[in-house]
Amino acid sequence: MAKRILLIDDDPKILTLEKTILTQGGFSVDMAQDGPEGLTKLKASKYDAIVLDVMMPVMDGYEVARQIKQLDSYKEVPIVMVTAATERDAMKQGFTSGAMVFMSKPFTAAKLLSAIQTVTK
Questions:
Q1: pLDDT under 50: residue ranges of the chain
Q2: How far apart are CA 45 and CA 37, in angstroms?
Q3: Residue 88 and which of 62, 80, 105, 120 are 20 to 30 A apart at CA?
């Protein structure tokens, strides 16, 4: 059975790109366009990994990650954070919030696929 991935990003083009890459890589993918929608989907289903944008309106990715890690069923589920922010502080905050992998945008298809394959083994 394919591993299930939840993508959370406010940019529909990025969501579509990530979904295409991961679906072609053999993963089952759902999408959410903001943090609250992502948290609702996480509470309703079980996912093997989460790809999470940092800079989003309503609730940024750091807050979403903190809330995800408070859910008992997601304490050990890996979060891959993606962002255009490349400062060391952004990366540190990502790991502190619960991310296992921190990737900068733009990323390659190979890099995203490799990150998800690694964290879902």
A1: none
A2: 12
A3: 120
